[in-house]
Design goal:
Structural class: alpha+beta
Shape: globular
Order of helices and strands: HEEEHEE
Helix content: 25-40%
Number of helices: 2
């Protein structure tokens, strides 16, 4: 791998972090409490875990510079959905959070346009 790939990797990480910050701000403005960010479990990471009105929301954030390669939501296919569900169960067990209403959102950011797909799966 050359220097170009390394710069691209760092750029993607920075864009992802920026997208998560943007999504967290959006949720906060809409009355959500952030319970965790970038929570790591045995099979991966949960981007945002939030709560509002007794509902726990597990939010996957996907940020892209453009839609040239399709919608960022396409990156959250069946395998990724299963992994997020498993991680949600891990988080609930690790935090001893009582079983409540759960929701799985996907936040897409294309350019600077943010879209929240509530109950995406």
């Amino acid at each position: 791998m050359g220097a170009r790939s390394s710069r691209s990797d760092r750029s993607n990480v920075a864009r992802g972090r920026w997208g998560e910050d943007l999504a967290a701000s959006h949720y906060r403005r809409n009355g959500y409490t952030i319970l965790a960010r970038n929570w790591r479990g045995s099979s991966g990471e949960l981007d945002l875990i939030l709560e509002r009105d007794g509902t726990i929301v597990f939010s996957e954030v996907k940020a892209r510079r453009s839609a040239r390669h399709g919608s960022p939501a396409w990156a959250v296919g069946p395998d990724k959905q299963r992994r997020i569900r498993r991680l949600a169960v891990e988080w609930l067990q690790a935090t001893s959070t009582p079983r409540r209403s759960l929701r799985f959102d996907v936040v897409t950011i294309t350019g600077i346009e943010l879209r929240v797909i509530e109950a995406a799966f």
